[in-house]
Every structure is written in C-alpha cells, then in structure tokens.
Amino acid sequence: MTETAVHTAFSQGELGQVLIDRLDEAARCSAPGPGVTRLFCSQAHHQVLPLISRWMEQAGLTPQLDAAGNLVGRCPKAQAGEKTFILGSHQDSVIEGGKYDGMLGVALPLLALEALKREGMTLPFGIEVVAFGDEEGVRFPTTLVGSKALAGSVTPDQFEAQDSEGTSLQDALIAFGCSPDDIPDIARDPANTLGFLEVHIEQGPVLEQRDHAVGIVTAITGIERHKVTLSGKAGHAGTTPMDMRHDALVGAAEMVLAIDSVLQRTDELVGVVGRLEVHPNAVNVIPAQVTFTVELRSPESATRQDGREAVTAALETVAKRRGLTINVENTYSAEAVACADWMMTALEQACIQVGQPAERLFSGAGHDGLAMQALTDIGMLFVRCKDGLSHHPDEAITAEDGESATRVVMAFLQQMGEP
To answer: Which residues contact 88 (CB under 8 A, 6 or more apart)?
Structure first.
C-alpha cells in the first residue's frame, strides 16, 4: 500500500551521511569528558530525549516517555492496538564510551522508517521504535530494566538497587518524571507482538575480517555478574608487621589474577573484573575492605556454571590463606537466547536484495534481546565497526556501512508487509 510522498526520497549515499550526522548530534548529549557518557536517568539522558523525539516524529511516530524510562515511538496502527513489530536499542552508554553502541539501533530504524515514508510506503502492521533507558547497567547494579518492562519480567528488587551516591532506581525514575508503580501496565501482549529487531555495531572483529558491512546474529551470549566483598583489618601501614596483616587489597589483587587464570584456561568463557573499590583508600592505612565485580560470559550455561564454581573456589582459597572474610553476591544473570529462524532468513533475503553478503555470526555481548525474548521472537543485525572496537571513544562505523544497514532494514520491513 502506498501514499503520496511528502518529502523527496533519500538519494543513494545520502542515508548513510544523515545517519552519521544524527549520531554525531546525539553524542553531544553526554557528561563532560572523552567519548560519550550517558547514564540512565541522568541529565545527558534527559538531554537526548527531544532529539530522539524529533527523529520519531519525522518517521511518522508519536513519542512518549514510559514508566520505565524508555522513549517509545508508535505509528497510528500501533496506537490503535493493531499487531505491532518492535525495533530499537538502548540510549545509555558506558562511561567514556562511543557514539554508536546502542544509539545506532535507535537512529537507524527511525531513519529507515522515514525513508520508507518518503517513498510512499505504508506498512500493514503497527510499528514501535524504542530507545530503551537502561541496558548497560552502569549507574545501577541491575540492567535491561527497559526491555524487561516491555517483556513483563521486571522484579521488585531491581527498584531497590542504588547508585554510587545512594540514590535508588525507584527514586531516580520518579525524579526523571516516570511512575515506577505503573511499570506492570506497560508490558506488551505477546499475542499482539510480531517480533523484535535490534541493529547494533558488532563490537568485535569478525565482519571486518570478512570485509562485510553487516552480519546476521544467530544468538546472544549468557551473562552473569557478581559483587565480591572482601574484608580484612585496617592498621597502621608503618607499624604493623607484614606477616600480621590482613590486607584486603593484596588479597583482592591475588584474586583478580586467579580469576584471569580460570578464564584463560576455559574455552568459550570470557570475563572481567571491571570495578574495584578500596576502603578506607588512604595512603598510610592497610586496606580493610575491597569490593569488586566479576562478570562471566558464555553461550553455554554449563560452561558458565563450571567457570563460576572454579572462580568461587579460587577466591575462597585466597581468602582462607590470608585470613580474610569473603561474600559473593549475584547481581545479574541472563541465559543465552537464540534468534528466531524466520527473522534470520528474512534478514538474509533483505541483505541479498540490497546486494550485501548475509553471513551469520554469534554475539558475545549482551543486548536487550536477552529480555525481549521472553515476550516475542527476536532478531539482530550487526554493523561492522572499525577494529572491532567498542565501549571506547574511538568506536566508529562508516557512512557506507550505515547506508547498507539502513537499506537492509527497509527491505526487511517491506518483505514483512508483503502478502
């Protein structure tokens, strides 16, 4: 079905440059410092909402901030309750991250929809594009709050999570203008949801090695995160004999090496100790307590379990030998999920239609699809990124690859609309 185009259609090559320009503009919505720092319910998050809202309106969608901090754009069919296909990704970033992780999957589908609109195309089903509020889990020790809200799987304990300044997620949402009590009401009806597609930079080197602009994701890795609290005893750094110390930092340093050793010798398991806090953190005081995080990732739950058990045993051995008390708390866990066969096939056909190779690959990073899979079928399209670099200010894609990915999404949606 078509309608008269109001605007001139995008010319070949123009889409990619428009996409890059929009992502550059979004990157200015950031806390000061290198790269992009845009945390959940922060000032930078608030600053980016009008920009995304404008993109949504240009695509023919009506934007609305929901109870979980997601900005949702809906077409008239979706607003009327017709069966709806969801696209989107997250607006939040890591600290000093890049321009494209997350935000690419917001800007690109909106541009694809705007391009289809300019070409006079009307899809026979509803469309939602979601800029999820929280995916990275940087500000609060929880993650995927926005996508879990749509899937109806948010748990009450997530709202008790506190940031480094003691602000709870519940209070942060209220201060942001959201109503956490209404989150159960925004869960989507699985019977009315056609699927979910996310476009994302690969965050790895495979597409660059293959010299392909895009790739079709087969599955998303499982992830678990743990908070380790190691307690020793403070003391004067100049008067306490070395053999009488219970130094939490020395113990933590040994534990970090032990964790790395487990990861190095276990196939298909990766992980990181990404955050470490020392108390009292004084120049002449033996550290009394250290808190650090451990993240483990694997596509196989059994591999992750074996790795977790090996890590835990190593930590307990170090703690016992050094006279330290240890507490390990699981703060996040998500099983690996597979992308739907029909979406992978449809994306392959769309790639062929626009003249792009359509090889498949696995995602070693977590994404909102981990939560959305509880609601509906999921699919992912990866876009090549320079040197496979992500979570870094130098993260980069080309306008040409952005153009190719946008046209793949256009072709995918058009195919879905064919009888």
So the answer is: 105, 106, 109, 128, 129, 130, 131, 132, 196, 198, 368
Q: Given a cut of 70, is residue 168 above it in pLDDT?
A: yes
CA gap 373, 367 in Å, rounded = 11
Q: What are phi and psi of 373, to 5 degrees?
A: -60, -25
Average confidence (pLDDT) over 216-224: 91
**Angle separating helix axes 104-118 and 14-27, nearest 10 degrees:** 140
CATH architecture of 14-221+338-416: 3-Layer(aba) Sandwich (3.40)
- In a 13 Å sphere around the CA of 173, the CA atoms on its Cβ side amount to 25
- Compute the Cα dihedral for 260, 262, 267, 271 and give only its sign: negative
CB-facing half-sphere around the CA of 361: CA atoms within 13 A:
25
| Confidence grade of residue 268 (pLDDT, cut at 50, 70, 90) | confident
Residues of the chain with CATH 3.40.630.10: 14-221+338-416
Report whether the peptide linkage leading into residue 280 is cis, meaning its omega lies within 30 degrees of zero. yes
Residues 6+ apart with CB under 8 A from 126: 74, 75, 77, 78, 79, 80, 81, 82, 83, 84, 85
pLDDT in the model for residue 333: 86
pLDDT value, residue 299? 81
pLDDT of residue 7: 67
| Tally of CA atoms within 13 A in the half-sphere of 374 that contains its CB | 16
Tokens of 363: 């995602």
In the chain, residues under CATH classification 3.30.70.360 are 227-334
What would the mean pLDDT of 6-20 be, rounded to a whole number? Answer: 86
CATH fold of 227-334 reads Alpha-Beta Plaits (3.30.70)
Per the rule left: phi > 0, alpha: psi between -120 and 50, beta: everything else, 387 is left
